[in-house]
Protein 1
Amino acid sequence: MKVALFVPCYVDQFYPKAAIATLELLEKLGCEVHYPKNQTCCGQPMANSGYEHLTGGCNNLFIDNFSGYDYVVCPSGSCTLHIKEHLHAHDNEDMATEIRKRVFELTEFLVDILRVDILEASFPYRVGLHNSCHGLRGLRISQMSELVAPAFSKPAQLLNLVKGLELVPLSRNDDCCGFGGTFCVVEEAVSSKMGKDRVDDHLEHGAQYITSADLSCLMHLEGILRRQNSDVKVIHVAEILNNSIQ
Amino acid sequence: MSSRDKILAAVKANQISHAELPDLEVLNTLTATSENLVERYKTIGSAGGSFVYEVADYDAIKSILQKEFIPGVKIICGVPQLHEYTNVDDVKHELSHSFADVELCILASNLGVAENGALWLTEEQMTVRVLPFIAQHLAIVISQKNLVPTMAQAYQTIGDARYGYGAFISGPSKTADIEQSLVIGAHGPRSLSVFILP
Amino acid sequence: MSSTATKDHAELAAIFNRDEPRVDWHDETLWWVRAKRDIAAHKLPEWELLRETASQIKNNVLSNLSTYLEQFEANAIKNGVTVHWAADAEEHNQIVHKLLSERGINRMVKSKSMLTEECHLNEFLAQRGFDVIDSDLGERIVQLAGEPPSHIVLPCIHKKKEEIGDIFHEHLGSAKGESDPKILTETARQHLREVFLTRRAALTGVNFAIAETGEFVICTNEGNADMGAHLAEIHIASMGMEKIIPERKHLGVFLRLLTRSATGQPITTYSSHFAKPQDGKEIHIVIVDNGRSIQLGREDFRNSLKCIRCGACMNTCPVYRKSGGHSYHTAVAGPIGSILAPNLDMKKYADLPFASTLCGSCSNVCPVKIDIHDQLYKWRQVIVKAGYTPTAKTIAMKGMAFTLASPTLYRAAGKMGRLTFKYAPFAVNNGANPWYKHREMPKAPEQSFGEWYAKRKEQKK
């Protein structure tokens, strides 16, 4: 199975460990993983700011980098969703359509395609799972609380396979953290307040780590935790799933 | 061109999509049940702030009302079986405003909804539209055979009946506008008593 | 209200956030309403089918609106009701003004109508010497406070009971310091009863207008619409033209959804169906367009006209909960307001589609399945193309797009960016960077993933 690793720009620049963990995890699970080296960004920062018309260059580059693989896997729900919903190319729409079908967020890939039900991983900590909105309501990797429908969570399903890990309950399971791309600076006051309230929920329930399938949310929550000099850390779900038995 | 014609022309020009009306049968069937309608009505009605009584006959209603309302207060009644009270037909020509001092209004309903405690009354049963709103307290009498499970069945029952005015009333007048704390008795009746007859 | 007109959502929200305990209180109150909605929805196994059915009925309405409007008008006239048409807010207000003037009426009682807020009817009539009193308790409170409602269902959700106590003490003579909601509600009851009994005209909104029968339905918990309408000589009902539903039986879908979505109640206390005027009295319906026919023609945004004004999207919206309704500086706040308002004035409301994280909760609580968050995204594109975004932002975005489209430029910029964070944090971590106000910047790693991967490949060789 030829898998292309799609590493979002800010993960590449600020959170390489999450990308490394994703790569190692996929290799451990038997995938032939390629990292197309000329990849940059999915274009979401522009598109969500109202500049989707400027994302043509990113789209073409994305298609150049990610054509011809069985799957494209990404450790970010948000960037995956952007590609799934907005990857288009004038001259190459067939390929864009093909990629839109083949792109997967990591946890949904592990659960739905690789059907992982055993993991040699250990993480003996109390962990709070932050549901990123794009993963949750966009990709539906978990069931949202708004709908009258059976509950499920692909990230939680995987985390429950990890030895020693205890998922802490939260008061609000799927309230947004307030990152929101450029929202985090344009609406700084509301964004920070939303992040603070999410952090508080995890802290009140005794989380030692906050994890998520989306690092953009975690980057925002980490910024707040560090400002509070908290001992609580953020960690991408891939790093937990790849954490070998100690 | 009048505003009417301008608006309609603009709407006509812009309504380009086409969408069929859905079939309501599935919902009607899914929600159709005759199970425990009285119990469900009592639970929901009470939760909505109503006093719900299952009574054997009109005498039972009278004795409850005698206990709840002191003699001499102004009571207007639209239920012929309860003839000791002023019948609404005898006062229907009075100015609506003259009912401002009505303490209790008693009316009959032929349709009640178990899922939400609502009782359907048309102008025919009210006689005077303002009565069930202006009275300090309201009592409604209904037979348990007139209870339906949900609003879906309620509108099937109403069908294409013609009325000048009709209302579903599901409890006492209430508000939660101040800090979301529920207060009974906003502008209309301070209580709703529902009497369910066999 | 005029003081807020020049500030955008972000600025107004920042002001709202200066009082953090109050933000917490506001957030908790609305979250509680959302939680009640969840409980009510989960009691109905058929909930999602109900939403889908309601959505399909509304889609049908939007595709046959002109036919339904004409049918409604004809049936209403048959019922003895007078029907008026208003192309915009001004015409709506003129119609109401004329109806009152012709009858020598200068005082009117009004029940909740977000449409009249949209049309600024109260101000219009006040300027002409008419006295209008809002009878919904929440609306009366904000009216006395000289503010617009901050929520379409819970108009004074932003006010604490102590503040309401002060307002009532000043205007209605309640005891100083009295803040018990029961006592304050009783004070309002006595005050408004006198109003209901003395007003010859009553204006109400319309929740649903039924084409098949010409009747219209008004939902209240307080009974204020009925008290006003039944006691007055003339009842004026103002309705946005999208309030039409085809048949009476469709109420069996919408009335099951409306209040469960709004407050978690199974139904309002009163669902009043007005078909004909009482003997010797009048009913007038004013059908208002005010931009709706334009919105109908915007394919991406026409679905917004399906809205039944339940307010569920506001209660669930974390941005609304943490910024307050007044931050939206428009009659209908929150997510739905943010997709409706740009249709009325794209420049004035250019900020609103950006007042969202696009979390998508709004679209999923919506009882008529409006794709609210997708429309917010689409409005952003429209607003940018129309040129209503700051030039600096456009320049930055162009630079960003250019950089990200080139692997070489991207790698160079990335290195620069990380170096900046690592060696000169003060260069970024200062007041000029809004991120830093309440958050630390991410720690820059030694190397990017791309660099690590290249080295690993090298070693493997």
Protein 2
Amino acid sequence: MSPRPQPPGSQPARRILGRVKRAEFVGRSAELDRLIAHAGSARDAGGLLILLAPLAGVSELMRQAYDQLFNAQGDAVPIYFSLPASDTTAVSAAIEFLNAFLAQYIAFRRNEASLAQASLTMNDLVQLAPAADLHWIEELVSAYNKQRFSSDERELVRFCFNAPRRVPSGNPKPYILFDAVKLANYDNEQVPVAGEIIKALAGSRPFVLAGLRREIIREVERAGVDYGALEKVRLEPLAEADACKLVASIARREGVSLSDECRDLLAQQFEGSPFLINAMLLSAREKHLALNSYFDCERLYVDELLGGRLNHYFTSVLEKVAPDPIDRSALIRLLSESLGAGQRTASFAAWAGRLNLEAADVENILRSLHVQEIINWDGETVDTQRGSRAWRDFVRSRFRLDALREPRALVVADLMSAALQRAPQTVARHYRRLASLPLRDVLQAFNYQRVPKVLFDYAAFAADYKGAPAEEIAARLEIDPQVMKLPQVFHTAHGVAFSGELKEFDEESCVVAHAFAGPGYTTENEIVWLAAKIDSKLEADADAVEEWCNRLDKLAQRSGFAHVQLWLIANEGFSVEASEKLRQRGAYASSRTQFELLSAQLSEGLNKSPAAANNEYVFILPMGADNELLAAATAEQIARRLNFRPEAINQIKTAIVEACINASEHSLSPEQKIYQRFQVEDDKLVITISSRGVLPAKVVAKDSAANDTAGVLEQRRGWGLKLIETLMDEVEFERVDEGTSLRMVKYLRS
Amino acid sequence: MSLKEPQTKLYATAAQTKVYATKEEPLADLKSNVRSHTVGTTAVVYASDYLNKLTGERIERECKKQLDSGARALVIDFSDTELVNSIGISILLGIIDIAEKNGALVVFSDVNNETVQLFEMLGLTRHVVLAKDEEEALTNLSTSSKAMGH
């Protein structure tokens, strides 16, 4: 079931609920496609949750989806509803939903777009209902008329939100697009609105429910709906390029003159938030302002923050969080002071003491701030270094105006001065980011991949590769036998998150990556990579290297990192003295060229081509009954094709037999199967023998040293791995969640 | 068939190996599936095509039996053996151990090159004499027996 395509020459796509034309809708194409596709899979589809970061904007996405589905006139009838922002009770919101549902259903069935937003009474709607729907709509309205005079508000709310279930099964199914971003406004209602909405939607699938991510997850779970069974779309602020496009697009639409510099500034300053960007440009239009300089932008920004749309929005957030003016004032003081002091965290008790409120009230405030992502609160510790830059400016200015009673003119002047000083830095940071190496991305892509060792050794790279044409470097790296296996990085953060001393450097210049280097997730295998980019136009010198090594060592020491690997990157590499220093300290070193080659290799590894799979053979054998011989015979066939020497073939066979025995003997495999993968590459055969079950302790501990010291005659068993290591060129246990996976490589040259 | 050249065949499992009898001595124990015979006080035991845990233990049992019956030397013949695994090797070490305790010599005969390499890697060759074939093994043993005054 999918939307019917419009025949050629049919009416153009109408804008019904969308506030912008489809062509002007920027940056959410993939998400829009998901919403449309979800309607198409109506028969089996369940719910789709849109988990929204605050200010990331979702209403236009849902409106665009509505318009597209309406114009397609397919089998799913789109119904868009946004919970009203304020001054509405649960009952009013529910009745509004019922009205919108009927109006939009009838509009779709009559293919009359204007009805979708028309202000119509229930009687009007019955009059407009097409013949095929008249019966059930009449019944619904009649039931509603009885229900609305009941004294049970909860019953009425439930009735209204469940109205879509009354569509007879033979009629087109409604597809509810429910925008619940304002759900928090209904927190103090007697009727549990969130629960009623979610339960009603769950009974009227398919549906889309959008809300603030921290709130909606909690409410879905509280409503008893299976969160895991729902599809999810995560909406973050727009990426930098899309944010720039959005600024330009709105400015064009609203007729606001905008320079390229200001476009980039607004995109950066508002951190890709469609809501804030839109608010600024609408104000510019209303005030007939051109935004052609940083000065124009920041003057408007300060006006907005102290009295315009931004002020209105942030004030409403504060009022929702702390409805009592005295509590609100205390909250502003607390937030402002914690921002100023740069003190990240405080305890719940400290907050309760400062706000002078009962624990339950403090809890409500913290929960609301947490949902809005103004703070992070884990139940005990409160981290205040959150929220957008605009929010932080708003809080500080409110504090100065309301609590400190400073003259408004002074606050305006200071705010303007700070914003103007910050603007060039904001944009410069953006440009630097565009030009910089994506250090975090590269570290995250490590994932146990194998790469040429020389990419981490600038001195070796300079000696062997520097000056060679790019194609030659790539070709030689491909066959470079010296490879290293990277760890699996499971967490990365900017260095400044660990050490305030790194504040003086660009955020991107230092990254701390926690990883596992061995086959098992054990403390011994845990390692922390400390990577830093040295800003140098020439080869970095020994002093710079020394300084960075000391800085990173200190960070490691303070953070209590037991196993550390330093990695320095400098655009033009390192001087001879610097390289020697790096060698002494066991640090890795790469130039920008090496880094880019590494980055390319890692991306390739993550997106393995199907061609690679064509050279891969996979066999599954039951354990026991000498089946390792079948594996050996298979390996022999494959190795012959590669023209391995007879001696090497026998070595491969023996290694496979040993690997199979190991897998059978130690894994306690529940399914008693051995998985074999043979990858044929130009110059080598890669064999992986794996099994499910437990990871043998000796693999985890790599306890081969004990074996080495024992006398030959005392060693009765446990030689398999030693044999394999002797017979093959590369042997290692790959990390698997359970059981073992032994990877063995035999090179043709060997 | 030896493994001088790798062969494309699936190896017969121990359970499938043929039961042999020799001219000199009838097969002593059909259950063990191990071919053996004695020449004087030397027992010659034949390893099967795949020396693993099962076949290794059978050889071990046969060797123990021969030693208990008064054998003063053991020749283990590998002329049929194409593949040996590490468990099989550990069992061979056990046999060497037992033989040493009984004051008996051990000779491995007709071992293919790849298996010799494995034995060397794991240090077996420090404890046994290797002979080209059974005949050479018996000759060597006869010489050393005379030298020792047996």
